[in-house]
Specification:
Length: 120
């Protein structure tokens, strides 16, 4: 049996404001966080974004490396979830404020779930 390489996730106290704000400065990444804000773990194949799969993978890695998401691999499938509890513990109300502003300005609206109709 071949052991799969597990992604490194920063510990809660290693998550920095600069990394979080930098990662969320991209509309695609902010859109991914908006999708994940419902608290459900999603398979990468469930996510829809107007970018190539390799670019989507890059965006998901940036979010993981910043401590915003947690990625879990199961066989050949990858799943991602928002680390809301960790983010709220480190930066109270920051995520809520960013999500509210993103919703208000419709930032990241082109990102959704594969079974949703594409944004106009």
């Amino acid at each position: 049996m071949v052991a799969m390489k597990q992604a490194r996730h920063p510990e809660r106290d290693e998550i920095t404001l600069i990394a979080v704000v930098g990662a969320l400065s991209d509309p695609i990444r902010l859109g991914l966080v908006r999708v994940l804000a419902d608290g459900r773990e999603r398979g990468w194949s469930e996510l829809r974004a107007p970018v190539a799969k390799s670019t989507l993978s890059h965006h998901l890695r940036v979010l993981r490396d910043a401590g915003i998401t947690r990625t879990r691999q199961e066989g050949t499938r990858c799943f991602v979830e928002l680390r809301r509890d960790d983010l709220d513990a480190r930066f109270p109300r920051l995520l809520g404020a960013l999500l509210s502003a993103a919703d208000s300005d419709d930032v990241g609206a082109a990102v959704g779930l594969a079974d949703d109709a594409p944004a106009a």
